[in-house]
Amino acid sequence: MIEELYQRWLNHPHIDPQLKKELAGMSEKEKQDAFYTNIEFGTAGMRGLLGAGTNRINIHTIRKANEGFARYIEGCGQEAMQRGVAIGYDNRHMSSEFARESAAVLASHGITSYVFETLRPTPELSFAVRYLNCFGGIMITASHNPREYNGYKLYDETGCQLVPDLAQQVIDQVNAVEDELAIDPQLTSEQQNLIHMISAEVDEAYYENVLSIQLNPDVNRDNVEIVFSPEHGTANIPVREVFTRAGYHFTPVEEQCTPDPDFSCTKTPNPEEKGAYELALKLAEEKQADIILVCDPDADRMGVGVLHAGEYVLLSGNQSGSVLIEYILSQLKAKGQMPQNPVMFNTIVTSDLGEKIASKYGVETEKTLTGFKFIGEKVAKYEKTQAKNYVFGYEESYGSLIKPFVRDKDAPQACLMLAEAACFYKAQGKTLVDVLNGLYEELGYYKESQTSLTLKGQEGAMRIQEILNTLRQDKPTQIGSVAVTAIEDYQEATREEQGVVSPLEGFSRSNVLKYYLADGSWIAIRPSGTEPKCKFYYCIKGTSAEDAETKTEVMQKAIAQLVA
């Protein structure tokens, strides 16, 4: 079967010449990984390695995805086709080509599209969908993944990534496409006219909306220096533009401001990894900058470094999220601007600290599955019902949304608000680490961390599934020396506590296990939806920072033994 697929691709008349060359040089193992399955078009769209084969991101699998999306839009009627689709892309290899191919496939079905002329952030694509009143959106990006990857994400008419029910309808259409190699859109002039370029008007509207989030627009900015890096990606222009208009003092890491698909001047484009900060830290030390802000390539995630007691401290997504919650909610309360029935959203793998901060200010917290689309879905729900009012949303993975004119994580918004918070607290003689430490002292010490088990290829995918299956069959009663008090299984939609199994309601089914421990800590395990990894999330509660750190090390060793 694999050899048959390989030969069909190798000898097909429509095969892309570059892919044909790659196919000709494949080893048997490379053939196996490239053709053993079709690249999964899941609820998060597609993300994978660039290259030839049915299990890779390439011009043919992108055409297949768009063929399925086009059929879905056709099924929604003529108005949906006329409203069309906004299309954005990042700096990665083939991103602009995939964006053009997306527009061409849609046009071949009589569907209008609006394409950004150059790379733009994911949050601006989400904004453009709503601003242009489109029926949907496409973003070509692999987010924070290494340079070998690319991806394809779909958005609904609210600017939110497709939630599972809608995504499944598209998935069914994509899976119904029998031959991706047969898709080769040759457009008539009438169909070409359905493809429009997005003007600078959208950029300007997006910048104005980002600037509108400021809570203290007159805060003293003169004593705070910022170092900023877009990691070769899409944040370069929007963040610099917003900082300039708002009057902040910042220095960009110039070597990382070119839209380089090879990420030549960074060890990693992922703000979750220390290598992403190497050049920014060097520049910050020269400038004695107060904060470092680093965005991932598609500008939905923001990493933070803070000068504290003479050293730069890198904050986790949970920590920077907690600081933002404290600043935003404290200012809304102080100014008498807290709305009625305020609500904050985070996920089942996000630290408990954020919820405690929200509760302190009378703000309810609602949890969702991992994936910002679930937060966007709740924003849209309450926008219609008016039952609750959004004040903040965030994930542990460095993504947050201040104001929901965007329905995805928005790093330019986060950068602006974090810079404002740094200025506000410096005027009080505090760093952002001081603020965080104050929250620990007030609400309890939490150590949040994440580890990943990377297992690539077919064998890796099978091993990850085996780990989850084993944990479901042989349920641990303790992790390390701490008793497990409850287990939530989001795939089975159950919660088991003291031997009693009850339904777990309010969530779509997802392959996640979460263990609650007797000391107030928890550990969650889930396969990544976008990378060949099994992820382990820890929220460890301690009596002090040192105690929480020690407990975390013990728990990580215990989990490693459990899944060995």
Describe the structure.
The longest helix is centred in the middle third of the chain and has 18 residues, at 317-334. It is globular, with a radius of gyration of 24 Å. Helix 4 runs parallel beside helix 6 (95-108) and helix 11 (236-246) runs parallel beside helix 16. Helix 14 (352-360) links the parallel strand 12 and strand 13. The chain is of the alpha/beta class and 564 residues long. It has 19 helices and 23 strands. The model has no long low-confidence stretch (mean pLDDT 95).
Keywords:
alpha/beta, 23 strands, six-stranded mixed sheet, 564 residues, 19 helices
Strand content bin: 15-25%
User: Structural class of the helices, strands and pairings?
Assistant: alpha/beta
The number of helical runs is 19
Shape: globular
**What is the terminal separation in angstroms?**
33 Å
Percent range of helical residues: 40-55%
How much is the average pLDDT? 95
Low-confidence stretches: none
Major sheet, described briefly?
Answer: 8 strands, antiparallel
Count of extended strands: 23
Rg measurement, Å: 24 Å
